[in-house]
Design the sequence.
């Protein structure tokens, strides 16, 4: 379940958390204008990189997650905690923050 990024750092989210790599935003408009990072909308789509082992239920068992590694997902634009690992910007979020799986 752990993932290795370019910097060889391994990440294993806990519980019902998942690590998502956000898709790149468009850098130019349809008219060819180059947008700086501050003017670009952060995409609310990405790929699940790593998943936790599930939410701890009241009876002590673990609930299985609905998403798995490699799924393309749609999430709220304010979801997750952003952090950098090497050159990669990743998001750590709860599975509840994921709105849909893109097929």
Sequence:
């Amino acid at each position: 379940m752990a993932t290795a990024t370019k910097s060889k750092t391994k990440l294993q989210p806990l519980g019902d958390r998942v690590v998502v790599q956000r898709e790149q935003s468009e850098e130019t408009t349809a008219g060819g204008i180059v947008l700086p990072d501050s003017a670009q909308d952060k995409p609310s789509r990405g790929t699940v990189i790593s998943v936790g082992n599930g939410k701890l239920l009241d009876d002590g068992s673990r609930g299985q997650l609905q998403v798995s590694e490699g799924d393309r997902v749609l999430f709220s634009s304010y979801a997750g905690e952003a952090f950098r690992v090497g050159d990669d910007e990743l998001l750590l979020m709860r599975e509840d923050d994921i709105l849909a799986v893109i097929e």
